[in-house]
Design goal:
Blueprint lengths: L1 H24 L7 H9 L2 H23 L2 H7 L3 H11 L7 H21 L2 E2 L6 H21 L5 H38 L4 H22 L2 H24 L1 E2 L4 H24 L8 H7 L1
Antiparallel strand pairs: 1-2
């Protein structure tokens, strides 16, 4: 069930990105912020995309409640694969064989990592020391990356902001898990007297700001692979650090799992570089449909 919920979260996330990108692309450029905001908030496509984003959050929260952080966050990389399918079937774009092959490579690497690493264990009540040490470390790394991102070329800035955002979204996954556990144990009213729900809000705001910074300052081909790949990488460490998750200690399986993760990352980079650069329908498919 955890795997299914995580895949549904990835699908809903992909749907949200495609829908909101289409809505934003249809807005004429050169308009002021207030005009654009008013347009998007009254655009049915953008609102449907927002609903998809809410659905993605719900599915992710349900998956994290009973699942392992390292597994759920790794499965979310399938968002890129679902996005390709939506762009082909919904937007009517031509997707190159290289993009489909890269998507298959991503899925193969992901499957190899999960199967060979044998993730298991974990507990719902981490110690205060584990939370504090992990959060302080993550905060220091994030602030350092964001500070360094103020200087250098657009590509360097995008890479550093995207890496910082990936770290924050991995931390946010731990807050989601802690919040769902708190809600299950104490209910909505009781959870308001505890820290996870407030950390969840702060983390979501920080992650969103860093993501927008990464997308704004440099090329998408640099920021997108890092936004997708850094999250599961950091989530593995946080799952072990905070929740006590662990993996196989068999040398052969460890090597195979590391190879699978590396293949997955290569697939992510290739998908983002071979997918169509925009959300415009392919003229040949449009004319065939007409």
């Amino acid at each position: 069930m955890t795997v299914l919920l995580a895949l549904l979260a990835a699908l809903a996330n992909a749907f949200s990105v495609v829908a909101q990108h289409r809505a934003s692309a249809s807005q004429a450029s050169g308009r002021g912020f207030v005009h654009v905001a008013r347009y998007l908030l009254t655009n049915p496509m953008w609102l449907v995309g927002a609903a998809g984003l809410i659905g993605a959050f719900v599915f992710q929260a349900l998956a994290l409640h009973d699942g392992l952080v390292s597994v759920v966050q790794a499965l979310l990389v399938t968002e890129l694969v679902f996005a390709l399918v939506l762009r082909r079937l919904w937007i009517r774009q031509l997707i190159s064989v290289w993009a489909w092959g890269s998507a298959a490579l991503t899925c193969a690497g992901l499957a190899l990592f999960i199967v060979m690493s044998e993730p298991e264990g974990g507990h719902a009540t981490p110690t205060s020391g584990a939370w504090l040490s992990a959060m302080v470390t993550a905060a220091v790394v994030t602030v350092a990356l964001a500070g360094l991102a103020r200087f250098g070329s657009p590509a360097r800035k995008a890479a550093l902001y995207a890496t910082a955002a990936g770290v924050v979204w991995a931390v946010e996954a731990t807050f989601i898990k802690a919040t769902t556990d708190t809600l299950a144990a104490f209910g909505l009213v009781g959870s308001l007297a505890r820290w996870p729900i407030y950390a969840l809000i702060v983390g979501g705001i920080a992650g969103s700001l860093l993501t927008q910074a990464a997308l704004h300052v440099g090329p998408l081909r640099v920021s997108q692979p890092l936004l997708v790949a850094v999250d599961p990488f950091v989530s593995i460490f946080l799952g072990v650090w905070i929740f006590g998750e662990h993996f196989t200690d068999h040398p052969g399986r460890v090597v195979a799992a590391l190879l699978g993760f590396a293949v997955m990352v290569v697939g992510i980079v290739l998908v983002t570089s071979t997918a169509p650069p925009d959300m415009e329908p392919s003229p040949s498919l449009q004319s065939r449909r007409a």
